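Explain the record.
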Amino acid sequence: MNSNFDEQIELLKTTPGALTGIKRGVERESLRVQSDGQLAQTAHPEALGKALTHPTITTDFAESLLEFITPVSTSTTVLFDQLRDIHHYTVKNLPQQQLWPMSMPCYCADEADIQLAQYGRSNTGRMKTVYREGLKNRYGSMMQIISGVHYNFSLPPQFWKLKSAPALSEQDKASAGYMALVRNFYRYGWVIPYLFGASPALCSSFLQGKNSSLDFQALGQGTVYLPYATSLRLSDLGYTNSSQADLCVSYNSLDKYLASVEQAVNAYSESFARIGVKQNGEYKQLNANTLQIENELYAPIRPKRVTQTGEKPRHALGARGIEYIEVRSLDVNPFSPLGITPLQSQFLDVFLTWCALKPSAEFVPSRCNEYKGNFTKVVLEGRKPGLKLEISREEMTIPEWGEKLLEEWQQVAAMLDRDNQSQAFSQALNELAPCFADPNLTLSGQLLQQLQQRNIDNGAFAMELAKQYQQTLLAGDYQYWTEQDFIDAKLASERDQAAIEAADTMSFDAFLAQYFSSDLVEA
């Protein structure tokens, strides 16, 4: 493949339309909370349909942890109209509850108060709940109710045709290109928590009385924070799990990636075996492997492909290649009713396209630790003056890195603007550029300033926002769908779940045995 960034930009300049038709989608998680700021204890609302089968409104780990999923769109405007409509319909059906606008959870006195998500009596539904039982027993429920935003992104087919790789098929060329993108994301993905990390503080109830090695400072009545943190969600307190620290996942090619994931899924874990798989007739986890299923692999970015019926994600990738990538390192943006803004989407489009254009050598193990180290530095102290990051043997401060990277990002933004008849991509960069020199302008900087200036708890501030956003969303109107569309989706989800339950013909034990010896879809 062409490896020189300047050459790639010149190719784009002479190939109008190469960046037309980028596809994107958003998955936003949000806890349901009571008006006093505590975790909602009610079941998934009936008006929102069945979480197992609803196309846009489901649950993640817990009954109280909603997940909103947009369809794939080539228009940022349509994407955010759809996301707003999902939020609008949901808040209309949560009269006594609000959507939590933060990544780190609300006040929760006891992990036992967190009810696992329920998906009905089908074998498929039961498996999803048992998987979550395993997560609870392995890592604890508090970690699992942290909320995030996932950004799904794919470049158009005409983009990959610019890549010079005559020996590869079009799909193999795209897969190789996406793996190169992923490697660059690991090198430079620290910019996501730096700019958009929004969890420098958390409710002390999250720690459940456990000692932390982090030097937390106190604020308000029950908030703890790190002065320069950007995203505690992405620290060892959150989704970055120490039990997976020794996993060696390769991103040097799709085949190597799939082989390393396969190995992790099938690797026996002595520590997890001590939990037990089934006790007194009740499942404690799906199995005693390092990963129960591949979805348990915590990573800031994943290569993905839409699965067919009866197919595991890794087998879909192996059979038909990478279709899109999923960015998983976005905190919920507390300053947006939707948890993400169009400006963030536009920056991500620029950044991810740049990752696909930028030269991307294969990883060696020693560099992997370097990139993980950069990520850890930024999530724990990314706003610290003078903090330096080393990338490919080049060490600079974050302002210096920002100045260097912005030069290339601006060239990519210009191409995106041209091919999409827009100025939004360049404008997004112009708006974010000052954040590199002034960390107080980042989301984590803004949030911590609000808390400190008002000496207000993280939770109290979140509830102010939650109630404000509830009113904002209720006052709006549908932009893309209608009320009847959501009612129809609810009814269809009920019919679909009933059909799945009626089609079951084997015991749950037999279903799991068949699942782990075949290519059935994962939970």
The chain has a mean pLDDT of 93. The chain has one domain: 5-515. Residues 22 and 454 are 42 Å apart (CA to CA). The chain is about 45% helix and 10% strand.
